[in-house]
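Section handout 9: paired folding examples.
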Amino acid sequence: LAVTQEYDAKKDCAFYAYNPAGGTILTLTPGVFAVFFPNEGHMPCLAVGSPATVKKVVVKIKADSARR
């Protein structure tokens, strides 16, 4: 992905250019969740139909811990 905003350690995020040919549409419904790994780009804050309030949980595990 082409970087549009470099990684910001304070916000713990970076931004990349949208590439419609290089992705998959994932529609989440109530009771369903998704897991994204560090090398997987994703587009948060999108809505299908009318926007609704959602609960967002971010869990970060040090990458070295996951390899053990």
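Moving on to protein 2 of 2.
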Amino acid sequence: MLGSIFTTGGVQIIRLDLHMGFSSVFLLLIWFHPLTDLISRPNKARIRVDGQAAFEHVTQLVSFGPRPPGSLGISQAQSYIKSALKKIKLEVEEQDFLASTPNGPISMKNIIAKTPVDQGQVIILASHYDTLLMKSMPFVGANDGGSSTGLLLELARVHSTLPREFTFWFVFFDGEEAQAQWSETDSLYGSRYFVEKLKMEGKASKIKAMILMDMIGDKDLRLERDLSSTPWLLELTQRSALELGYSKHLGTMSNAIQDDHVPFIKAGIPAVDLIDYDYGFNNVFWHTSNDTLDKISPQSLKIVGDIVVRVVEKLGVNR
């Protein structure tokens, strides 16, 4: 028996020649494998995201109290984040800048951890770690600022222990929240500064994708279909969630979200926002003193972490 294999138009044809005496016959076995299937097929090795470990990070961050830029709480959060990153042997950079805000100049700090070996292309996983300035009530931001930061620390741990196809940058943005009233100039201070510096240094072309997480700890998790995200990367994210059996955690409505991924998109860098913008019935807990630890679920953190890991795997197949 002789065989040959050739591929055309996404179809693999296997020819088997069967020799029987002075005669022979051949069989054609046709195997369809569309290009989209090849692109979406992830590495079989499963990466385990520990939702409880992420939740413990959130607990620590909340224990520092309110964490608006320039506060004692955010200073404690910065020390905690840097310490956690250094424990897993990542290179930690601090990006200090003076933000011009309606409340005057405020010192802010982005924290960037990088995997040590330069693989060429970079994937950024990101979160903001500041909380909204609320003078009228204590706001500890367990979900808004805390949940995504806790998960990002766990994802940094996960990716620091595995062989890597990319260089990873784990970026913790300061100043996502408005100081007075949300606008293009009063919001996203850390991500806007980060992207401008990236462009000045000529490094924007190195970024394959930016994956942002925000408000992802809600026990009733529903991730938005964000119209501000890069379409192909959003579809990759949605497909990843479906493949993992997380369809019930995908929102059915589309919404255009203004978040830390927007400066990247404006700079031509593919970016997606994983966000649950319905925190409590009709978003009742958002930006209130009720954004507390009891509303956060380790399982929700794990679900989002699993989705992010799957998206990264897919990006590795489609290099």
